[in-house]
Amino acid sequence: MVDAPGAVNDNDAAQDFANRLCIEDGMTVQELGWSDDCDPSIPEAVEDRIGEALLDEDTDELCDVILLWWHDDDGDLVDGLVDALRNLDSEGCIWLLTPGAGKEGTVPPGEISESAQLAGLVQTKSDRFGGFQGSCLVARGNKR
Known about the structure:
Order of helices and strands: HEHEHEHEE
Shape: globular
Organism: Corynebacterium yudongzhengii
Radius of gyration: 15 Å
Protein name: DUF3052 domain-containing protein
Helix content: 25-40%
InterPro entries: DUF3052
CATH architecture: 3-Layer(aba) Sandwich
């Protein structure tokens, strides 16, 4: 079956998530903070791209990318970011995924920026992934 011109199929949308997250084949990716209200298409797209399951919070491997799901009631964001840094490779990034504006659990952009700075990180870009806002955070000096 051929898609109608301009139609977006689910596989294309999922692969678009992986592209926008800058995920490449062979990367090591960890997922932290998953809960039932998170969007499963995001980690599924990443797993499809890297060809293996995402690592969980029990891993001690260094990771190229960490997907950190966060809601405003999850506690102190600075602590969450510092904990996530434990397994992050020096050239890696944390994608902080928070509910989009107007949704329950939204984290204000100012809080993300301030928490990132306090954790020794800077935000390099942001993007919308379905109902979630993504903020790419890297260590100061990392040009990723």
